[in-house]
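Chapter summary example: a protein plus magnesium ion.
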Amino acid sequence: MRRSAFFLPTLKETPSEAQIASHRLMLRAGMIRQSAAGIYSWLPLGWKVLRKIEQIVREEQDAAGAQELLMPTIQSADIWRESGRFDAYGKEMLRFKDRHDREMLYGPTNEELITQLFRDNVRSYRDLPKILYHIQWKFRDEVRPRFGVMRGREFLMKDSYSFDLDFEGAKMSYEAMFTAYLKTFKRMGLTAIPMQADSGAIGGNLTHEFHVLAETGESGVFYDIAYDDLAAKGEIDLAALNNLYAATDEKHVPGGPNVPPPERLREARGIEVGHIFYFGTKYSKAMNAQVQGKNGEPVFVEMGSYGIGVSRLVGAIIEAYHDDRGIKWPESVAPFKVGLVNLKTGDATCDATCDDLYAKLSAAGVEVLYDDRDERAGVKFADMDLIGLPWQLVAGPKGLAQGFVELKNRASGEKVELSVESALSKLIG
Ligand code: ATP
Ligand code: MG
């Protein structure tokens, strides 16, 4: 993509409404614009990142055996009456009527709809287990939308739902999702600590929230400092969890299972990027979702649901990866891998070299944003640092006279001078 043609309205000034780094940077880097409180347009740069994140989530869900489908954003109130949640859900649910005076709502979540789909289409235990998911916009009329996409009113969520014949099966589905979540967040460069969440009576301890630690996180979390070592080694897994303590809730702290001695208990702040839980037959009973069991008997299916805040993750990743000049994208979610900077647009050698680099990188499938604008070098550098592409490839008249371009790693700040050929092979290889 040529920067001269790209719709990328970057801002020099810090917008006054933004309180945390990720919100400020998403506005300044031209990723989002607010349309109403907690409702955003995703501009091309932001949209590219959102799709990369979504794709990682999708690949790990598929790898765990979940199947993607797509349910609508608008739902009928009828099924929510069946589950009893139409009245229970409260003001977070956006309700409205269609022209025939039928009550509708913009889905805040999809347990009812998926249970209805399951009930109407699955008859036998032979069709189990099933994990179904979609990646779809949700609306929750949050009291206090804030921090940009972190707590929006309209936001993108991946929600999966598991259906099993019995508790043993449900537990296996839960564990498959648990593992998939750890892999998903790791691929985005995040350490998300699974925290025991408050489940009420149903399902005992089969509920976890996944939190990325950040000072600006909205949730207070408590955990065993041994996690820090495991996280540094990238070794948090189910086995580690059984021995270590982490919870989102102070009331789990005194006397809970595996609570470490006070000197090992750390209090921190976290951003909740995912939440998984087992809820048994809560919806299958309320909505009569039964299958025929092994001996012909009717069985209410055992269910679980598994959410990931896809749009919130964009903010969470920026909270984890930025400095005072801008974003530092991990390569797996970067909107482009390379920012190509032409230091002197209009200079024949610079233009020819950059055009050639752009063509060759693009042909090799490397995503490049080519700053071909007639702007001062300082402006181009500041913009590149702000939008945070992992690699900056800089070509100017002085270097080119000696046959060199400069390659800068945005995360480490390290710069090397290379021949055009070695720069190409480094970025393509
Ligand atoms: P929170 O406690 O942050 O309100 P929740 O418990 O309501 O979250 P779930 O219903 O479990 O969230 O939704 C699954 C995931 O969707 C959450 O883990 C979070 O990452 C994301 N999410 C929830 N609400 C919002 C929101 N208002 N804006 C952006 N993402 C959200
Ligand atoms: Mg909520």
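Key point: The mean pLDDT is 93.
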